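STRUCTURE:
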């Protein structure tokens, strides 16, 4: 896996410093390897990687690495594409082509076409905005250290209005609480990487792509969020991202799809243990409760 990622990005002067930091972090935190790799061409990568799940994860990592290249590199895109084709292909590659040609409107259109449907919190299906607001405000009365109280504190800390008009944010933000990632660009990228790893690459990649397109290349418009670029080049961001992948691989489920409101009174630390979610290490983009 590491040899494929390294070989695919070794073109046009690459890997760049940002790509190299992520590759090194993946080697250390996810694969627990040194940086000694062999060179694999696309056919060699396909022969070495036969498991469909591993192939999918490598493809997703290759697309991520492509989006870390600033400025864009057509030779890199061409080489990475040859590896992705050899590994079975990926429809999401069209977004990289949009990025290469600076086709901002097409990025949004293609992502909208490829995105997974938003997950709605199970406990609020069919409820109106007033009822949803009452249910969320009640979380302030949950016991200290509980999942519900931590959700309330997360919203208070960031000054977010209650998402009564966008209920899909409830499950997303409960995932923030369970994972322990703040709503910073680094924390958003880490959360999405963790969710992808928690599902073995079977889900949430469109969410990771959205975060990369918003915070790494600044090409996906999102309401009330200012696009950023090269967030994973910030100090500690690559390590946080790779650690999130490792934490996701250790997790026992897709923790964004749970009925979180039914678990609101549960102690957050106990819930994390039950779900096999490793306790986050406190830092600028993480929190324990």
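SEQUENCE:
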């Amino acid at each position: 896996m590491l040899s494929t990622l390294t070989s695919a990005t070794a073109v046009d002067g690459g890997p760049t410093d940002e790509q190299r930091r992520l590759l090194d972090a993946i080697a250390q935190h996810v694969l627990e390897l040194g940086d000694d790799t062999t060179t694999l061409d696309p056919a060699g990568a396909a022969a070495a990687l036969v498991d469909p799940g591993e192939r999918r994860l490598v493809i997703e990592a290759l697309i991520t690495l492509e989006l870390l290249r600033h400025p864009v590199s057509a030779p890199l895109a061409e080489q990475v594409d040859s590896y992705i084709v050899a590994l079975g292909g990926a429809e999401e590659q069209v977004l990289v082509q949009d990025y290469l040609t600076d086709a901002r409107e097409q990025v949004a259109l293609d992502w909208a076409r490829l995105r997974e449907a938003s997950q709605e919190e199970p406990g609020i299906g069919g409820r109106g905005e007033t009822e949803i607001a009452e249910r969320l405000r009640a979380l302030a009365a949950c016991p200290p250290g509980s999942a519900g109280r931590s959700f309330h504190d997360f919203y208070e800390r960031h000054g977010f209005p209650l998402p009564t008009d966008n209920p899909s944010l409830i499950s997303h933000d409960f995932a923030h609480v369970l994972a322990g990632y703040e709503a910073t660009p680094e924390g958003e990228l880490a959360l999405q990487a963790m969710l992808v790893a928690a599902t073995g690459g079977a889900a949430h990649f469109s969410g990771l792509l959205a975060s990369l397109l918003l915070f790494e290349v600044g090409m996906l418009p999102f309401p009330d969020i200012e696009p950023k670029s090269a967030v994973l080049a910030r100090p500690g961001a690559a390590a946080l991202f790779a650690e999130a992948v490792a934490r996701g691989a250790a997790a026992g489920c897709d923790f964004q799809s749970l009925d979180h409101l039914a678990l609101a009174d549960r102690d957050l630390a106990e819930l994390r243990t039950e779900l096999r979610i490793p306790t986050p290490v406190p830092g600028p983009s993480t929190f324990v409760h």
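REMARK: The radius of gyration is 19 Å.
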